[in-house]
Amino acid sequence: MSENSHEMADETVEQFAQEGHTDEAGIGAPSLRAAIEALLLLTDEPMPAIELAQITKAPLPQIQQTLEVLSAEYTQEVRGFDLREVAGGWRFYTRSECSPLIERWVVDGQQAKLTQAALETLSVIAYRQPVTRGRVSAVRGVNVDGVIKTLLTRGLIQEAGTETESGAIFYKTTSFFLERLGISSLEDLPPLAEHIPDLADLDAVLESVASGD
Hints:
Shape: elongated
CATH architecture of the largest domain: Orthogonal Bundle
Number of strands: 5
CATH topology of the largest domain: Arc Repressor Mutant, subunit A
Order of helices and strands: HHHHEEHHEHHEEHH
Strand content: 5-15%
CATH class of the largest domain: Mainly Alpha
Distance between the termini: 54 Å
Radius of gyration: 25 Å
């Protein structure tokens, strides 16, 4: 970004502030720039400038100007991410120059072996699906939140609705899980491993879990 562009941006922000259009102390963030960055980090889809203006209660021209300034600064500083305007909105993306690194990380992550905890959790889900996170925790005797996230990320399990009374999410294995095991259906699963309770015992454990799992 040129020095003239920076000066124009600063003058624009200052002008709006002097005219009473902004009250950065009242937007719940250290500055308008910080507010925009925080909001864009939370969104999963491009966020239109008009929506940012409505949330921050700042003038649309100032929002647009700030977005352009931030985007140019990230590019000039060669950050690992950049800010792009796509599909009628703005969103953060990893910088294209970082693609080799990202691809290597994704591939290595998919090839990495599952931990013993992940294997045990996956086994419980496979043999008792659909099953809630709370019931899996009851069987294993430990919190499985992190492991569930790992299995979801790997594409080995997926959400399968919710329990009527408690609203707890049910989980089940995916077709990718079957593919990785080299089987065509759940009926082809091998006998339960020794560290997993017998089905009858497992049912008894699950029944002992509070309905609010």
